Amino acid sequence: MESQAEYGPDEGPAQKVSVSMPAGRVAAVKARVGARGFSAYVSAAVERQIQRDLLEESLRAKEAEIGPPTQEIQDWAAAIFREAEEQAARLEPGEEKR
Question: Which domain of life, per UniProt (predicted)?
Fold first, then answer.
């Protein structure tokens, strides 16, 4: 059996894993993508979380290097995130983000 460490994050054969989550969350995912799209949906969610974790690590490292962002930059970033959340909320289920 080959080592999992030989593969990058988006490489290698599909591997079956067992994940526990609340029944309501499982139902919500299946309602959005159907039972056949469940694995792809969860895989995409894990990919996004890894990206967020890496971003957070990068931000912490940069902050340690140059100090925290100014209040003006924090306010600007918060406004951008609010706008993105509002745009996402307006999308119809299944509609592609642009």
Answer: Bacteria
